[in-house]
Write a structure and sequence with these properties.
Blueprint (H helix, E strand, L loop, with lengths): L23 H15 L7 E4 L6 H14 L3 E6 L6 H16 L6 H17 L21 H18 L4 E6 L6 H16 L12 E7 L3 H14 L2 E4 L5 H13 L4 E2 L1 H11 L3 H18 L5 E2 L1 H24 L3 H12 L7 H8 L3 H13 L3 E3 L5 E3 L4 H10 L1
Helix pairs in contact: 3-4, 3-5, 4-5, 5-6, 6-7, 9-10, 9-11, 10-11, 12-13, 12-14, 12-15, 13-14
The protein binds adenosine-5'-triphosphate and magnesium ion.
The site of adenosine-5'-triphosphate has 25 residues, from α2 and α10.
Length: 400
């Protein structure tokens, strides 16, 4: 019987679900990139994009687990408007290098990398990194952060190579990364890419970088670091298909000897509408309903799923309402106007006309809502909602 304490579903943000389904092509590509990088081939940085709750952080989490198990040096970064991702990157490199020091065979490469990081830190006084060794004069102290960080990545990559491992750098929420940091990171990656371990063979160091963020990320990368950053390989994480949702619901239950009836799955599929966050919510609430019913051992019924879907809807409504709570009235009117228009019509001029004004008069509201992370630019002057279901919520609230 499904027991409340054993509920396997994880509605939340950034949590790796028990069954991460429908993202096989993305994982296959990331695995290929890592294997090729380990063989010395150049691999472009990867970019995962998707709206809120589509599973970007979950994919990164799974990548971290798999590559850590494989012995890679994993550096898991989260960008923010006010944080310093570059300092954290250097700190994390230092931590891995210290760990590798126990291996006497790679001592020289590790020490060289630690001294290089000391040079970068000294040359860029704003970086709060605890240094380990005396800096190396003439190395990584040009004053150009991209070049110096590049030297640090090259030295650390050399130490990883000699340790028989690879470095996996990931940056989540990359759309929020300040342009100067984007420019430093991608400039450094470009320098790394140009570095030949062995000029006769043209081999590269085993370092891969995966960044993830909202669909506006590519534009943010271009703004910060120009065309090199634009050459990332992008995967768009979209809604899941029915087969993936079904598997994500069925597998964790089956692991506990619990089955979903066909009708229960049909109801849950309609309730989740392919949205990963909603599928976990529907799964969780349906399991809770089945546990409360307490009879019919080991079967989740259509009635359980109907209750689960209704509870999940209420929860999603509360989530949307709390996001809107902090939005002042005038901005909310802007959001409502956007919600009334269909996707292709959501252009600044059309929205402003809905509200009775010009695009210029309303530009501040558009900018504020993008800053709040509720809207995002969607090309050609259009905007889109970042949170699936928010448009429907706004229309429903307005209609009542
Ligand atoms: N492929 C998947 N299969 C099943 N569940 C998933 C899948 N991807 C994500 N989830 C679940 O959906 C929820 C949201 O995922 P996650 O936090 O990774 O989204 P995100 O894209 O990083 O969102 P945000 O932009 O808000 O950070 C989590 O509960 C996660 O466990
Ligand atoms: Mg996330």
């Amino acid at each position: 019987m499904p027991h409340a304490d054993d509920n396997p579903y994880v509605p939340g943000f950034g949590i790796v679900p028990p069954a991460l389904t429908g993202r096989e092509p993305e994982f296959a590509d990331l695995a290929t990139a890592l294997r090729r990088a380990r063989r010395g081939s150049y691999e472009r940085p990867r970019l995962l994009t998707g709206d809120r709750g589509m599973g970007k952080t979950a994919v990164l989490g799974e990548l971290h687990a798999a590559t850590r198990a494989d012995g890679c040096w994993v550096i898991d970064l989260e960008a923010s408007v006010s944080g310093d991702t570059i300092a954290v990157l250097l700190r994390e490199l230092t931590r891995h290098l210290r760990g590798a020091r126990r291996d006497a065979r790679v001592g020289a490469a590790v020490n060289a990398a630690l001294a290089t990081i000391a040079s970068v830190t000294l040359a860029h006084t704003g970086l709060s990194v605890e240094v380990e060794l005396a800096p190396r004069p003439g190395v990584a102290d040009s004053g150009d952060i991209a070049a110096d960080l590049g030297d640090a990545l090259i030295a650390a990559g050399q130490a990883a190579l000699e340790s028989g491992t690879a470095i996996v750098v990931t940056v989540d929420e990359v759309q929020a990364m300040p342009a100067a940091q984007v420019s430093a990171l991608f400039g450094a990656l470009q320098r790394l890419a140009k570095h030949d371990v062995d000029p006769t063979l043209g081999t590269r160091l085993p370092v891969i970088c995966v960044v993830a963020g909202l669909p506006s990320s590519r534009a943010a990368l271009r703004a910060g670091a120009g065309t090199y950053a634009e050459r990332v390989r992008e995967h768009v994480l979209d809604l899941l298909d029915d087969a993936a949702v079904t598997e994500a619901l069925r597998t964790p239950a089956e692991d506990q000897g619990v089955a979903w009836s066909g009708d229960a799955i049909t109801a849950a599929l309609a309730g989740a509408a392919g949205y990963p966050f909603a599928l976990q919510l529907v799964g969780y609430e349906t399991w809770a309903a089945a546990a409360l019913r307490g009879e019919d051992a080991d079967l989740i019924t259509e009635a359980d799923a109907a209750k689960g879907v209704a509870a999940a809807r209420r929860e999603l409504d509360r989530l949307h309402a709390s996001r809107l709570d902090e939005v002042p009235d005038t901005e909310r009117r802007y959001l409502q106007a956007v919600a009334r228009l269909d996707g292709t019509q959501r252009r600044s001029a059309v929205i402003a006309a809905e509200l009775g004004g010009t695009a210029q008069e309303w530009a501040w509201a558009r900018a504020r809502l993008i800053e709040r992370g509720l809207l995002r630019p969607d090309g050609h002057g259009r905007v889109a909602f970042t949170l699936p279901g928010l448009a429907e919520h706004l229309r429903a609230v307005e209609g009542t």
